[in-house]
Write a structure and sequence with these properties.
alpha/beta; Aldehyde Dehydrogenase, Chain A, domain 2; about 425 residues; 14 helices; seven-stranded parallel β-sheet; Aldehyde Dehydrogenase, Chain A, domain 1; single chain
């Protein structure tokens, strides 16, 4: 079991992560993949301890009044563990990014230059509620030759410690240092501040959680930070949309799993298609108990045609809000330009979609919406490392520096130049 960490030994943990990085970054892809394969088997065949630990966390969180959205993120069951195990197998089979030659050059003076992909180093992550993140971050860091130092939320402490025990056992079986994956087990929030100051030991920090956590980390971290995860996701139904397709996409994006960052928050509907679409959509959404916060125009249509759905008049705060529940905002717009303008003002740079059969509108939307994932005729629920063929993700970056969108193996690498000469000196 991971030790109880205090401020005095946090630096020692970071130093051990740095030392383990030297071993891990020079280990074989085979050894790193074996860790993931062993861990996958463990999650399927020996998951009783993990499920019992999660049950304890879930019961405590529910008794303390945790929201349904957060409880859903916290929950582990056999099917979710099997899905995590499947992702681990997929990651283990991915091509090794380490050592890849990105480009070569032969200079006029005879110097041979090679640009080679290398791991970033020690990756720290601060996250909330979701114990699957513990496995995702560990797996992607290990496969890409990075070590990780993690600090999860207090609500998932037992689940995370049980998962870290399983990860350590898998590292031991593969002959790799257990300190390649470390977990800060003390829920004392002062440790977060201490961790943010360890720029000499941590190469990159990735926060995953609510807006307040991400803002605090961004403002106080001494090392580079990749931020994201706040998903204010829009689906715009253009005048040229197929109505049945639009209905299916919106239902999936809103209802399939409403508590995650790529779920739909705001529905934008072109004025020409609104009288046909909204009554049908109102019926669809009412069957799933979705509550709609509507602008005046959409409110009038839905009140007249959809008596069973829960309707509220939208307030300014509804635009640009990540609901994480069975609630969505609805607005009627007069053009693709208006839709793009609305997303530019209220979007978070996460995932936005257009439903249309009109090529001009599609091209405009795809080119001009400045988000990490922009969709044509598909649900925003696909913005996910596993769905993008990355196996999993350490996070979804909504910034533009270094990495954007789901962060997989290559997003956890940098590069270095190798220069081979025959005695050249610069004149």
């Amino acid at each position: 079991m991971a030790e109880l960490v205090d401020i005095a030994n946090l630096i020692r943990m970071a130093e051990e992560s740095k030392a383990a990085f030297r071993t891990l970054s020079n280990s074989s892809n085979e050894a790193r993949s074996i860790v993931l394969e062993h861990l996958s088997d463990s999650l399927v065949n020996n998951n009783h301890t993990i499920l019992e630990a999660n049950k304890e966390d879930y019961s405590t969180a529910k008794a303390n009044g945790m929201s349904d959205a957060m409880l859903d993120r916290l929950l582990l069951d056999s099917s979710r563990l099997q899905a995590i195990a499947k992702d681990l197998k997929n990651i283990s089979k991915l091509d090794d990014p380490i050592g890849e030659t990105i480009e070569t050059r032969l200079m006029d003076n005879g110097l041979s230059l090679e640009k080679r992909r290398v791991p970033l180093g020690v990756i720290a992550s601060i996250y909330e509620s979701r114990p699957n993140v513990t496995v995702d971050i560990s797996a992607l860091c290990l496969k890409s030759g990075n070590t990780c130092l993690m600090r999860g939320g207090s609500e998932s402490i037992n689940s995370n410690l049980a998962l870290v025990d399983a990860i350590h056992s898998s590292l031991l079986e593969a002959g790799l240092p257990q300190s390649a994956v470390q977990y800060i087990s003390n829920p004392d929030r002062s440790l977060v501040t201490e961790l943010l100051g360890l720029k000499d030991h941590v190469d990159l920090l990735i926060p995953r959680g609510g807006d307040s956590l991400i803002r605090f980390v961004s403002e106080n971290a001494s090392m580079p930070v990749v931020t994201g995860g706040i998903g204010v996701c829009h689906t715009y139904v253009d005048a040229g949309a197929d109505i049945d397709m639009a209905r299916a996409i919106i239902i999936n994006a809103k209802v399939q799993r409403p508590t995650v960052c790529n779920a739909l928050d705001t529905i934008l509907v072109h004025t020409k298609i609104a009288p046909q679409l909204l009554p049908l959509l109102g019926k669809d959404l009412s069957e799933h108990q979705v509550e709609l916060h509507c602008d005046q125009s959409s409110l009038e249509i839905l009140r007249a045609t959809s008596p069973d759905i829960i309707l509220k008049e939208a307030v300014h705060e509804d635009w640009g809000k990540e609901f994480l529940s069975l609630v969505a905002a609805v607005k009627i717009v007069d053009s693709v330009d208006s839709a793009i303008d609305h997303i530019a003002i209220y979007g978070s740079g996460h995932s936005d979609a257009i439903v249309t059969e009109d090529n001009e509108s599609a091209v405009r939307f795809l080119n001009e919406v400045d988000s990490c994932a922009v969709y044509l005729n598909a649900s925003t629920r696909f913005t996910d490392g596993a769905e993008f063929g990355m196996g999993a993700e350490v996070g979804i970056s909504t910034q533009k520096f270094h990495a954007r969108g789901p962060m997989g193996l290559r997003e956890l690498t940098s590069y270095k130049w190798l220069i081979r000469g025959t005695g050249q000196i610069r004149g």
